[in-house]
Write a structure and sequence with these properties.
Layout (H helix, E strand, L loop, with lengths): L1 E9 L2 E7 L4 E5 L6 H11 L15 E9 L4 H9 L7 E9 L4 E5 L2 E3 L1 H11 E4 L10 H12 L2 H29 L1 H18 L5 H13 L1 H17 L5 H13 L9 H27 L4 H20 L7 H16 L1 H47 L6 E8 L11 E8 L7 E2 H4 L2 H17 L5 E5 L7 H14 L4 E5 L3 H4 L4 E10 L2 E8 L2 H13 L5 H15 L16
Parallel strand pairs: 3-13, 3-14, 8-12, 12-13
Antiparallel strand pairs: 1-2, 1-4, 4-5, 5-6, 6-7, 9-10, 10-11, 14-15
Helix pairs in contact: 4-13, 4-15, 5-13, 6-12, 7-11, 8-10, 9-10, 13-15, 15-16, 18-19
Amino acid sequence: MLTHIHIRNFTIADAVEVEFGSGMTALTGETGAGKSLLIGALGLVLGDRADSGLIRHGCERAEIAVGFDIERHAGLQTWLESRELDADGECQLRRIISREGRSRGYINNQPVPMQALRELGEQLVDIHGQHEHQSLLRSSAQRAALDAFAEHEALLADVAAGFADWKNTRDRLAAASRSEQDRDARLDLLSYQLQELNALGLQADEITSLEKDHDRQANAGQLLSASRQALERLYDDDTHSAYRHISQAHGELEGLVRLDDGLAGTTRLLDEILVLVQECADELRHYSDGLDVDHGRLQELETRIGVLHDLARKHRCKPEELPAIRERMQTELDGLEAADQQRAGLELKLAELETAYLENAQRLSGSRRKAARRFNRLITEGMQTLGMPGGVFEVVVTHDAQRPFGAHGQDNIEFRVSTNPGQPPAPLSKVASGGELSRISLAIQVISSKSGHIPTLIFDEVDTGIGGSVAEIVGQKLRALGNDHQVFCVTHLPQVAALANQQLQVSKLTGDNTTRTRIRLLNPEERTDELARMLGGVKITEQTREHAREMMAQAQAIKPPGPVKRRPKRTG
């Protein structure tokens, strides 16, 4: 569950920090005070798209931080551990938005991409917006609502995976069939090009070796002259060679060692130098003796290199890439020659995948029809209590075996409703008014949420368009939902707010040319005044307050949820 939120410089909030409890929490306040600000901030920290326009005027960045208690949610802990984001059972999320448009997200103080925040957020919080009932007119939303109620995650995963495998195999078979159309021409071209490449007998790294050999042959005269000249200077010149001069110095110093043994180290070094000079001379003599200016070999190298460069230009590659080109062409040729066998294998695999997909789609369809019967009963019962006596709700699940394969199966799912006794159910979009659609949507949300595993549910003014006893029933449903989930409800209705386990007041403060939002938990007396305001408007009488007290007293009779686990107080 959500334990706290800290908001800084977000829209009209300069610094807001709120702690939350379990059960049902009502968020109330004057129109325009910023009740949905809390929902918007929470959506951002859970990965919604950011906009620098959300930063408070005059500030360079906005920051939202939230904490969740996930002690009883093993799946969330496993998700964090698998990504090395766990921190002793904590779940702290943070989002920073800068004026330059940059956005950064953190999970337990570790930077993460927005996709990670979204994935985790979908498991932590479910937000139902005030206009969400409009989406219920779409067939995809109707299918999703039924599947959520039926908890079809595993069945849907099987169908989606089967569809992906089938589609991939179908595409591969289509590609194999297309390649067969121009297979003969491609085979002829590949065979000719491979014959040309194979005739060269080109080895890996041969071009590098050829170019080095060519450079040596082309510059053999210069190399021979320079090496012999160096040999002369080092050793062969009896008068001026380095060896002669070093040898003389060594002899002179060696005779002085008996006078001062401090010269012994120098003489030993000169011994080593003489040996090294002699070795260098031997290496140069061997090198120069091995140099052979072979004009015929040079011509052969130039011809070979020229052929390789011409062929590389033909294949639009570097000469050293020719062996890899040959390997790729050979692989393609082998594949084309085995195309018939491959296509037969793909056809067999496609048939097997098609059978498996149809079986999974049938299983999903059967489960949907079974769930629909229970869904119909519960939504119909909900309609009776939400101001639509005699109303009937019906989900029609029609399996269409001729329907193209898809990730969600082959069912057509349609919500039908009758809002007047004696009238047959008709498609939702044709018979339900805006207010009726809102109430039906609320009933679906409440029932679907009860069967879900998301710990925190938020209802943002979903009770718009209802009032009186129906509003009180809506409040009772949300409070009952709070026994299994943490529930937040942004509401204008006192009948709903009175049934909350706790109430937060959102107010807008102005002064010194600034506007800011304040959110605070109301004590019983303050809550009485807030409910009285919601009941009576601008002028609040003692009679209105008494009515508010009576509403709260009736709510107190409802059994509260379990104890609240508070986060530790901040230190430092």
